[in-house]
Write a structure and sequence with these properties.
12 helices; 0% strand
Length: 335
Amino acid sequence: VQILDLTFKAFITIVLVYLYGVVGFFIALFFGYLIGAIFSKKLLNPKFKLILSKKAIKETIRLGFPLLLIGAVLTLFQSVDRWFILKSLGVAELGYFAIMFTFSSLILLVPIRVLSVVIQYVREYYFKTKDHAVIHFGFIDLLFLFIVLNTILILISKEFVFYLLKYYLIEYQVSYDFVNPMFAVSYFIGAFHILSAYFVIVSKTRYTLISVSVAFIFSIVFNFVAVYFYNTLYAISMATLLSGFVLFGIVLYFFIVEGVGGRRISNLRIGFMLCIFIIICSVFAFLPTHIFNGDPYTNTLTSLQSLLVVMLVIILLVLYFKKLNLNSLRRMLAR
């Protein structure tokens, strides 16, 4: 249902932006959520009884209130760049940024939805066993799997977005100038969601809240610097990329420090993983992009260069997978 919902929102956004420009984006935002809510209710047909219990209410508040705060701060964090664009560059530039932000969000559609399914198995395993070690190392394996999947999705998405902007959303071709940093940030946001899920399962959401709050402050600083010194969409997109890296870096720090049972783990896999993230995002931030008015040979060569780099990254990761002990991940997902 979630995949259908997000696919529909993406489709209606592209269509309405094509027909009505920037105004169409805001129309799609409203009707996407409205129609999505109606269809979700019809498909899921939820049936439940309202039972009031002091114990249940207290437990709900204890678990739900931190998540509510995290969601609110995360929304602010993800809106900082758009507020700076609106104030400094105007509504038209916001439309260019918003369309690329939408494409970037779609990259995470599959990984995040797969994660939401996996979490159900992990939560069940943890409640039965309380085995922190298996959960901790299992999530490390999940991060590596996410890197491989996200790398493939970015390659496909860059090609799709180029031809969509070239032949259909022609007036938004300027958005392609900052496609690399906007797509690269999906690594950090996706990794943040994975590690946040870990802290939710082990009931330590305070680390996620701290990470989002600190990253929110850094995001304001980065965007202020980008606007003050450059005042371009590319500079702001780089500020978004740096903000995402800070968010990931802080939550990864807590993940390492927390370790198993509150003890620090000296684990080379985590350090190696962080290096891989930096390398991948640096590569994707500076890879050549297609040229709309360029000759077909140049664009084909660009596609081949991207494909070769992605294949190299995947080969390196697959080779490293041989060193991973995936037993933790298998145990988490076993019924």
